[in-house]
Specification:
single chain; about 300 residues; alpha/beta; 2-enoyl-CoA Hydratase, Chain A, domain 1; eight-stranded mixed beta sheet; two-stranded antiparallel ribbon; 12 strands; elongated; EC 3.4.21.-; Peptidase_S49; hydrolase; serine protease
Length: about 300
């Protein structure tokens, strides 16, 4: 009986290992509508939350900035590509990750490629930051976009800690080393520091939109109060160039690149089994709207573990 149990456990572990090995193996994106002699338009997908790094969570759709940047560089190196469509279905992400992708997108444009942003269900906050850098933006009338803004938040658990009898003592090298600590209120000086960070990143965001949309900073700030817009509203406000679906974006990219007829589509980049399985889990959520809690990103550096 014990031998049967042991054998069963071994077989179970082997089966699980095999499934995980298959699951974590990158699955290459396949080319669609490819045909010899036709002009090619590359497609790069940005799905789920946007974060720095290469790795992605196995339980949520997420786009790593390094992987997206690598795909953009790959597109720049392909001589057959005349244009690239960046397909966005994302509530946003961290500022730095969006900046990294935007910087690589500008290098792609400087290489001579046309770049068209295509918006799916949601392309807000950090995703709009990226879209603003494209030559043209195409959105569905019902796309949720905009959310041009930044937020931080802190949580004060001091009273809760007191009720459960928990107390901590902090030893720090400077007065602001434990900014955002949940066991005490934020001081006025810390509040001013946090607000200055939010204001600085907000101004960076506004500058990117003003540059990409050819608008005055004051005009952008009138629209950049954090609210979201439908695709149709964004078109009326000049935040989007054209209403249409993904296919319309491909046709526009081909036309701008001088491709006669319908272009061939070449998908660029790889996604893992898990990304395909969980794609859209968070991409279709209304963000709050957009920036992953900036405080959480800062908390790791402010309070290293």
């Amino acid at each position: 009986m014990k031998k049967q149990i042991i054998a069963g456990l071994i077989l179970g572990v082997a089966a699980i290992s095999l499934v995980l090995a298959i699951a974590m193996k990158p699955v290459g994106r396949t080319a669609e509508n490819s045909s010899a002699g036709r002009g090619e338009v590359g497609v790069i997908y940005i799905e789920g939350t946007i974060a720095s790094g290469r790795s992605v969570s196995p339980f949520e759709a997420q786009s790593g900035a390094e992987a997206i940047a690598s795909s953009l560089r790959e597109a720049a190196r392909k001589p057959g590509l005349k244009a690239v469509v960046v397909r966005l279905n994302s509530p946003g992400g961290t500022p730095a990750a969006s900046q990294e992708i935007d910087a690589e997108l500008q290098r792609l444009r400087n290489s001579g490629k046309i770049v068209v942003a295509s918006m799916g269900d949601v392309a807000a906050s950090g995703a709009y930051w990226i879209a603003a850098g494209a030559d043209q933006i195409v959105a569905n009338p019902g796309t949720i976009t905009g959310s041009i803004g930044v937020f931080m938040q802190t949580t004060n658990l001091e009273e809760l800690y007191g009720k459960i009898g928990m107390d901590r003592e902090i030893y720090k090298s400077g007065p602001y080393k434990d900014m955002g600590s949940p066991d005490r209120p934020v001081t006025p000086e810390e509040r001013a520091i946090f607000q200055s960070m939010v204001d600085d990143i907000y101004n960076q965001f506004v500058d990117v939109v003003a540059r990409g949309r050819h608008k005055d900073v004051a005009e952008v700030k009138a629209l950049a109060d954090g609210r979201v817009y439908t695709g149709r509203q964004a078109k009326e406000l000049g935040l989007v160039d054209q209403l249409g679906d993904f296919h319309d974006a491909v046709l526009l990219a081909g036309k701008m690149a001088g491709i006669a007829g319908e272009p061939a589509i070449v998908e660029i980049g790889e996604k893992s089994f898990w990304q395909g399985l969980f794609a859209g889990v968070k991409g279709n959520l209304l963000p709050g709207l957009g920036w992953t809690d900036l405080l959480e990103e800062n908390a790791n550096s402010l309070n290293p573990r």
